[in-house]
Write a structure and sequence with these properties.
The protein contains six helices and no strands. The protein is mostly helical. The two termini are about 30 Å apart.
Length: about 160
């Protein structure tokens, strides 16, 4: 169960990285548009303030995110395209073989995105001082505890009847 929560936190951080990457570019592509509306500048500013990042650290991180945009953009576009293809089977004629093939393709793209996001996260984390790393770990642990509590609350809540 703990592994699932750690993956969820990693996914949440990956989303933040995705937002930051899209914000790091002057002109993000259409597949990244959905991330641009997520308050990436606010999140980057929050992390810079919360961890007391130096100007040099912020510049290095911004450069890293801008550089990695080229790696993530085609993966995000592929994921968006696959999901759009899957949606046609929700409202049209269901073809299990085609849906399975698209689902496998989506899983492969998600795997690659997870690997890339984790690599980027690690690279950014290594830019932090030991004190900043400890503070970031503490923040993630608190977030994990809140998510655990939320998941437990959802598990304990009685199912609501459908209307």
């Amino acid at each position: 169960m703990k592994s699932v929560h750690l993956r969820f936190i990693a996914a949440a951080f990956a989303l933040v990285l995705g937002v930051a990457i899209s914000q790091a570019q002057d002109a993000a592509g259409p597949a990244m548009e959905m991330h641009e509306h997520g308050g990436g500048d606010h999140m980057i500013g929050f992390m810079a303030d919360y961890l007391n990042l130096t100007d040099v650290q912020q510049k290095q991180m911004h450069e890293t995110l801008a550089r990695e945009h080229a790696t993530l953009k085609p993966l995000m576009q592929q994921l968006h395209q696959t999901q759009a293809q899957l949606r046609q089977y929700e409202t049209g004629v269901f073809d299990e073989a085609k849906v399975r093939a698209l689902a496998a393709q989506e899983a492969q793209t998600q795997t690659e995105l997870t690997v890339q996001h984790t690599r980027i996260h690690s690279e950014l984390f290594q830019m932090l001082t030991p004190d900043q790393q400890a503070k970031a770990k503490e923040m993630m642990a608190k977030h994990e505890a809140r998510m655990e509590q939320h998941m437990q609350h959802m598990h304990d809540a009685p199912a609501q009847p459908e209307q």
